[in-house]
Amino acid sequence: MFANYMTFDPHVVLRGAEREYSEFFTGDRAHHIQDQLIEGATIIPIIIGSDKTPVTKHTGRLEMHPVFVTVGNIQSDVRMQATSHAWRCVAFMPIPSFDVHPDFQTLLVSRVFHRCMDIVFGSLKQSAQTSYFMTDGLGCIRNCFTPLVSYIADLPEQQLVACVSKNASPVTTATLPEFSDGQLHPPRSGMSTLQLIQQVCSEADPWDIKRFQKQAKLVKLLGVHQPFWRDWKFADPTFFLNGEILHTCHKFFFDHILKWCKEVAGNYLLDTRYKTQHKRIAVRHFGLGVSHIKQMTGREHRDIQRTIVPMIAGAGANSTPLFVYSIRSMTEFIYQAQNPTHTNSSLASMVGALKEFHATKQAVVDAEGRRGAKGVRDDFNIPKLELMQSFARNITNNGTLMQYTADVTKRLLITHCKLPFERTSRQAATFVDQIVVILNCEESMRRFDLYHILHLSQAPLENAVLQEDEEVTTIDPALSFISRVAPEQEHSFKGPRPFRNHFANPKGFHSSDGAIAFHVTVQPDHTGILVVEMQRDYNLPHAMQGNPHESVEPHNRQG
Question: Name one Pfam family in it (predicted).
Answer without folding.
Answer: Plavaka
